[in-house]
Design a protein that fits this description.
By secondary structure, the protein is mostly beta strands. It is 0% helix and 52% strand. It is built from no helices and eleven strands. The strands form two sheets. Strands 2, 4, 5, 6, 9, 10 and 11 form a seven-stranded mixed sheet that branches. A four-stranded antiparallel sheet has the order 1-3-8-7, with no helix packed on it.
């Protein structure tokens, strides 16, 4: 069992920055890939970023590339998403997930948090 809890979401102005955190409990956190996804009302949940077991392999969705940074601290069982130069289109509920591979596909993730709301005003 893996429990994931996201935090850090709030209202922020366009151009601003925000850091999301995902605290994990359970065994073998350091052996799991961790991903961030987001969803807006009426849209499908989409991939944002993923980080591998060692924290060196990262991938980003094109809309956030160069603006967002994913990182992890295995000693703290926590994964982060640093978001800079935020845009109104970044507004969404952000979810973290734990999986067995550093993949973009949601099917590779078997544990999910309940999400944290990020709202970017123009």
């Amino acid at each position: 069992q893996v429990q994931l809890v996201e935090s850090g979401g709030r209202l922020v102005q366009a151009g601003g920055s925000l850091r999301l955190s995902c605290a994990a409990s359970g065994r073998n956190f350091s052996n799991r890939a961790m991903g961030w996804f987001r969803q807006v009302p009426g849209k499908e949940r989409e991939f944002v970023a993923v980080i591998g077991w060692g924290g060196t392999n990262t991938e980003y969705a094109d809309p956030v590339k160069g603006r967002f940074t994913i990182s992890r601290d295995n000693a703290k069982n926590t994964v982060y998403l640093q978001m800079n130069s935020l845009r109104p289109e970044d507004t969404a509920v952000y979810y973290c997930a734990a999986g067995w591979a550093p993949a973009r596909m949601q099917s590779h993730y078997d544990y999910w948090g309940q999400g944290t709301q990020v709202t970017v005003s123009s």
